[in-house]
Write a structure and sequence with these properties.
158 residues; mainly beta; 10-stranded parallel β-sheet; two-stranded parallel sheet; 1 helix; 12 strands; 4% helix
Amino acid sequence: DPVTSNPAPTGDAIMYLQSGDLVKDSQSSIFLPQTFTFLGGGATSLGAGDGSLLWTSPLASACSSGDLACQYGNFFKLTLWSESNATHEIGGQSYLGLRGVLFTPNAESVFTGQAVQSQTRAQFWTNTLEVKGQGTLVMDVDPEAAIPRPFSGGSLIR
């Protein structure tokens, strides 16, 4: 990614907002590398201005390789978990780098932008996703940053 945090993070971080909004406005930039964010209420408004947005999920690097209980206990692959039904807006006109799962099942997510935003490392689990602006949203699955959908099938028990 062309925009990174400097210095690089030495570990994972958690941002917990019980109520209130996470807002990026004007020309400001937000850098949240390896950061899981929990919103109990409120919304994200991260689409305004020319500033950069870098938001990536925790890597759970302190866990042993293959220790899924440890990895998921450290919010491995989760960028955002929101219990709110408020609109979550993400985008921008400058650099936008997302990695991991943005989980907003009760809300509308709005993705805005002016340039091509190739979010091949982000996964949206949302009620609805609206793409606005003059840009193009290109998405692809990255197994290293995505969480598979649970199998939802039936089986016959005799």
